[in-house]
């Protein structure tokens, strides 16, 4: 019986937060020690590992691809325009490490944070509208091979309504 009260208390504590406004994320900037750590990592990678890896444009491209993939594996947050902008600097990461310039990865992460806030704001607006469970919705679970959305209008419908209605039914 106590467990029911704990769940009820947790629900009542968390329920208002579903309708709260989402604050804008802080703009992150690289700290000096982070830039120094990046330079030190690059030195270890290219000089002191068992199989030295050259810090070149090819490695920069692989790092950029993995970074973007780790932030948005389902291709639901970034737009194609975001990806095009990021990939313009794809081969520049290696050149920016020595002068300790981490603007590129921080700009990408700040864009990611803003996209997450935008998506949360949209999801919360869906919660306020209520749901129509009479229709049939499809949801593509594996979107890692799908193209990036071309516009905001195409980005939001991608599974969000299904996810929010699922959370609504199964808290």
Shape: elongated
- Number of DSSP strand runs: 0
Determine the N-to-C terminus distance: 19 Å
Portion in helices: 55-70%
Query: Into how many domains do the coordinates divide?
Result: 1
Biggest pleated sheet: none
Number of helices: 8
Q: Assembly state here?
A: single chain
Low-confidence stretches: 4-9, 11-15
Mean pLDDT: 77
Order of helices and strands: HHHHHHHH
Radius of gyration: 21 Å
Q: Roughly what fraction of the amino acids lie in strands? A: under 5%
Global structural class: mainly alpha
Q: Can you offer a commentary on this structure?
A:
The protein has helices at residues 2-14, 32-48, 57-71, 80-87, 93-97, 103-129, 152-155, 160-169. It is elongated and about 60 Å long. It is mainly alpha-helical and 171 residues long. It has 8 helices and no strands. Helix content is 58%, strand content 0%. Mean pLDDT is 77; it is low at 4-9 and 11-15. The longest helix has 27 residues, at 103-129. The two termini are 19 Å apart. It has one domain. Keywords: Signal. InterPro entries: TSP_N (IPR040573). Residues 43-153 form the Tail specific protease N-terminal domain.
